């Protein structure tokens, strides 16, 4: 994977880079949050590991900025276990919180877990979006059936009329229903 790391401490940054490359990953290294945001925009990493306290833009602000354009798994790295920071982190779409110093095994496990949880969250979001679209289409079709039924058709005849129109005009049932509602 292409992994973006951001930490203002060079020793930590170099240590993480070495561990990640040892695991077979490609690494982008940033010295602060602003640089991490720019790198994420240009390089499109598969995962980001961000120190929570960095100059210019902290890791939480960087995570928020990165995920506003494109979703990716994010791990927050810190030497601090302050409750306020943890609470701020829980309001963001991050997949893990690592305390420094990080051991290779813990880093590998956190990456595996973050990628899996991120994939599951993405699949759930896609399913929810499909269900919302299906529900909106069903409501539109029901409203169109209601309009046709006011003209004397049975529910089955109204549905068949919408279906026939969709087939005849080579459009979706939703588009045919919208046309019925628009009086076209």
Give the topology.
Elements: E1 2-6, H1 10-22, E2 26-30, H2 33-43, E3 47-51, H3 59-69, E4 74-78, H4 83-90, E5 96-99, H5 104-150, H6 155-168, H7 173-182
Parallel strand pairs: 1-2, 1-3, 3-4, 4-5
Could you explain how this protein is built, in words?
A five-stranded parallel beta sheet has the order 2-1-3-4-5, with helices on both faces. The protein folds into two domains: 2-102, 3-Layer(aba) Sandwich (Rossmann fold), CATH 3.40.50.2300; 128-182, Orthogonal Bundle (Arc Repressor Mutant, subunit A), CATH 1.10.10. β4 (74-78), α4 (83-90) and β5 form a beta-alpha-beta unit. By secondary structure, it is α/β, with parallel strands linked by helices. The model has no long low-confidence stretch (mean pLDDT 91). The protein is 62% helix and 13% strand. α2 packs parallel to α3 (59-69) and α6 (155-168) packs across α7. The radius of gyration is 25 Å and the shape is elongated. The protein is built from seven helices and five strands; from the N terminus they run βαβαβαβαβααα.
């Amino acid at each position: 994977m292409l992994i973006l790391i951001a930490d203002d401490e060079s020793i930590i940054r170099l240590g993480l880079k070495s561990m990640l490359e040892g695991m077979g990953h490609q690494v982008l290294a940033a010295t602060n949050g602003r640089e991490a945001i720019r790198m994420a925009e240009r390089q499109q990493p598969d995962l980001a590991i961000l120190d929570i306290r960095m100059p210019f833009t902290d890791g939480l602000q960087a995570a928020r900025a990165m995920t506003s354009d494109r979703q990716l798994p994010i791990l927050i790295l810190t030497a601090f276990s302050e409750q306020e920071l943890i609470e701020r982190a829980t309001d963001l779409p991050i997949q893990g919180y690592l305390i420094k110093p990080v051991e290779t095994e813990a880093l590998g496990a956190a990456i595996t877990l973050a990628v899996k949880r991120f994939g599951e969250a993405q699949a759930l979001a896609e399913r929810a979006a499909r269900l919302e679209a299906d529900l909106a289409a069903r409501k539109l079709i029901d409203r169109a059936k209601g309009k046709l039924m006011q003209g004397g058709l049975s529910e089955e005849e109204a549905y068949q009329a919408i279906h026939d129109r969709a087939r005849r005009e080579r459009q979706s049932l939703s588009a045919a229903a919208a046309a019925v509602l628009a009086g076209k």
